[in-house]
Amino acid sequence: MRDVAFEVNGKACRVAVEPRTTLADCLRHDLGLTGTHVACAHGVCGACTVLVDGEAVRSCLTLAVQMEGAAVTTIEGLSSEDGLSPLQAAFRKHGAVQCGFCTPGIITTMHALLTTEPHADEARVREVLSGNICRCTGYMAMVAAVLEARAAYQGAPA
Amino acid sequence: MKLPAFDYATPTSIGEAVALLAAGDGSARPLSGGQTLMPLLAFRLTAPSLLVDLRGIPGLDAVEIGEAGTRLGARVRWCDIEAHAGLAAAQPLLVAMIGHVAHYQIRKRGTLGGSMAHADPAAEMPGVAVACDGVLHLVGAGGARDVAARDFFLGPLTTALAADELIVGITLPAWPHGRRWGFQEFARRRGDFALAGVAVHYDEVGGRAVGAHVAVIGACSAPHRVAAAEALLEGSAVTSALAAEVGRAVAASVSPPEDIHATAAYRRSLAGTLAERALAAAGGLA
User: Fold this and answer.
1) What is the pLDDT of residue B286?
2) What is the pLDDT of residues B225-268, one digit of tens each?
3) ipTM for the complex?
4) Structural domain tally of chain A?
5) Domain that residue A94 falls in
6) How distant is the Cα of B106 from the closest Cα of chain A, in angstroms?
7) Same domain for A49 and A97?
8) Which of B45, B53, B103, B118 to mutate to test the interface with A (most CBs of A within 10 A)?
9) Which residues pair with B109 in a beta bridge?
10) Which CATH number do you get for residue A99?
11) Residue A66: which CATH number?
12) Which of A103, B58, B100, B204 is most solvent-facing, going by the fewest CB within 10 Å?
């Protein structure tokens, strides 16, 4: 077992993990952050996407021990008890969620995209969304929601 | 899927990393971005005793564009290539091919050293290395050596890399202004594993192709150049008829694998069509 110290959703944490523990399993099993969903577990579906130092990464293809000193943000860190974020509100408004299993990975990915590329056009949004598999919605509502949510990221510091 | 158990080390120099690779039972593996290695571990296609994480080694993420060529460090990520201001002009084929690598999240961690070390036949970076006459820079317990890309990729997940060696970078020769090129790839979902891909480039002298390069990925066990297709192209004016002929030569040359995604016959036909289209794009044909 190895001690790893990193930040999760703004809070410092320290966990003891086996080197083979993925970041996804560490978040879910060791830290109880079950908003990060695991589907394929080999980097194809995007469901487990979290932010590491602001970048969207597949947490099933990342080891927890690699997170020493990093700042990790999960879907829990993008939500507030007070209400929905603009991106979440847009997903709700457009009905961009059905079963919801893929949604945390899509919200984290789109948050990372719009934070760095607040003016991303529809083609870019669709290209980036292609890394996240959704078997319910058909994506149309998600694209509309993301395009609408761009306004909330424009003018904000990247 | 749970990974097999392994130990984990974070050396801070190339020398220390190589010593760790050499010290074990020969099954230790470097860990760069992990975007190829982690799935292999998940499927238990490999079970190393030790992962040597390269993230603490400074300098491996450098991109240097010089007169003789472009040197890229092994830890340069796909997103670094996309964001680099000078690479699109210095190495247009590299940038075009990298545009087909995986998806947004994988590009944030995947590195060109990791891609080349694993040599997936469908991977773009080994194809870039072969198509552009790249030279890989390796460091091992016995010292440093350079290996031409054409001698490095031996087969699926098989390279000339020794167990105690590390890829530290690759040099792609300088790309002359005006060089003609084209790249075509097909995957069921853009970013997924290529069913086939073809890169073509040549210089144009007096309306004829000189220095013809035709390289294939995906529809083969390792990326390689197709001599028969290059012989057709060399010294010729690029026309639609020639593009079709080159396509047929590429199709005839490959022995593609057959799997759940496509039959061998489909992949062979696809490789030919992509070669024809890549050459047509290179030649500016409609």
Assistant:
1) 66
2) 999 999 999 999 999 999 999 999 999 999 998 889 999 999 99
3) 0.93
4) 2
5) 86-153
6) 7
7) no
8) B103
9) none
10) 1.10.150.120
11) 3.10.20.30
12) B58
